[in-house]
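Ex. 9. Protein: Cytochrome P450.
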Amino acid sequence: MISWTLAVFLLFLSLLKIVQKKLAASVSDSSKATPGPWKLPLLGHLPFLGFFPHETMLKWKEKYGPIIFLQLGSYPAVVINDGALIKAAFVLKVQPFRLYWLSLYFFPNWLIENAVRISLLELLAAGVDTNSSTLEWLIYYLVKYPQVQEKAVEEIHAALGTNTFPRYSDRVNLPYCEALLLETLRKTTIVPLSLPHNALEDTEFQGFLIKKDTLVLGNLYAAHNDPKIWADAGSFHPERFLDDNGKLNKMEAIVMSFSTGKRKCIGENLARNQLFLFAVSILQNYRLQATSQLPSERGVLGITLACESFQ
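Predicted structure tokens for Cytochrome P450:
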């Protein structure tokens, strides 16, 4: 009788221990779950993102913090709304977070054979649509802020005159023009969200559990509008990139219009060089002004965040 009672008691203790472990694991998992807004069945958060999802995600940051979970239809996703954390994910955590399209290929030979083709396509995409959109925004801001335009023109004429064609090497002598381009890239963020990365395995990031096959997106728009980093982020102010001596400061390194990390846009240098030559050539020879009312700075979101047409 005693042995039977003891056996039942030991069984009860064992079951109690198992239940305690399950509860502890449940609490641990819930404490690591990435916070996010309420979602609909099947559609998830898609209906709530609106026409400017990067702005919506930034608003959610105020309530849920810089790392939020979204269900994009059938795709679970984590959005990072902080520049430093985006760099931490895509630079320090580069191995578990791979570009989504790379994780779709299971045949290394195919990938190797087509690597050059893929790179050329990326360069073409980076150099055509993004550059044209950025140039449109640059013209928009030069027209809207004539004092900025005049300051850039004065610098160009002082360094190059009116007959010397600009070269890449002239960038060091035109710091205000460089700051003007950087502020245009920051203010517009024509690609507001980074290309989706994919979690290759369950990964803990900043105390949150990001499960395998979750999409990871960096909200570059949020990074460029963080009031802790950018004073008066809503204003167009090229001087924020210049030090007291009129030279470029360290703020240039924080701009991530071309994303960040090992897999950032491979066309960044090409695009920035082209933008510099276009901008300096235009300002060296023309004065820009609008003959119609300027549209909203909000733009129109398509493949890129484009400026609305004006004359």
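Check your answer against this statement. The beta strands are 67-72, 75-80, 97-99, 197-199, 203-205, 208-210, 215-218, 300-301, 305-306.
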